[in-house]
Amino acid sequence: MHDSPEYLEKKRFFDSLVTLYGRNVAVEVLRDESVEIHKLHLSKSNRVDETIREIVDLAEMRGVEIKYHTKEALSRISKNSAQDQGVAIDVKALNYRSASQIQSDFSGSFRLLALDGINNPQNLGMIIRSAAASRIDGIVLPKKNSTKLSPLVMKASAGTLFKIPIYYCDTLAEILGLRETAFITLSSHAKDDIHSLKIPERAVFVLGNESEGVSDAVMKASTHSVSIPMHRGVESLNVAVTAGIVSFLP
Length: 250
Description:
Layout: H1 5-15, E1 17-21, H2 23-31, E2 36-43, H3 50-61, E3 65-69, H4 71-78, E4 87-92, E5 96-98, H5 102-105, E6 110-116, H6 121-133, E7 138-142, H7 151-156, E8 166-169, E9 182-186, E10 192-193, E11 202-208, H8 216-221, E12 224-227, H9 239-247
Parallel strand pairs: 2-3, 5-8, 6-7, 6-11, 7-8, 9-11, 9-12, 10-12
Antiparallel strand pairs: 1-4, 2-4
């Protein structure tokens, strides 16, 4: 039995929603006309101060639906009661899409960053910033064993969170079947230097976290493994720094 087009369209819509939280974040996204807002959620227990008034005014000016909730209900929406400050906001991230769309999004060449086990939000934000500023065409972010898009990621990205496609999947295994695509892992043990690599037209650079590196399953599926040459006994780099180097390869 196949899902109806209406159901699939509705699913795509809700999959594209990213829920952010916090008063300053709400003000920032409401001020940014390029960001499409789906809904604003406020706690009924909020003290109506200057910031809350600004949030409500901005939402009303943009015609954003405002929903009021109990503190407990709002915490279920934000999933972070300790830091939501009584405010959550659903953003329609047009750049946030299923990894199943990669094949149809690119008929020709592409370069993607795939993140394997990156669970530090500051690192993710800095990776997004470097990728958005470079020739990288998108980022693949698994839902399992990875940090989620959040206000911390948004802050570290310095306003670039919505500027580059972010493809979500459950695990990176879902993209390993992309046809005619090179999967390039980075390892300090690799014999080949990244600067000597002739990058294929369709390439996915896989970056793992600093403590565990790239998972065995992804490493086995890789078509290339390269290292970044380092000096003075330095053994590794922060993954965000590595992403910056990879993003600006010619």
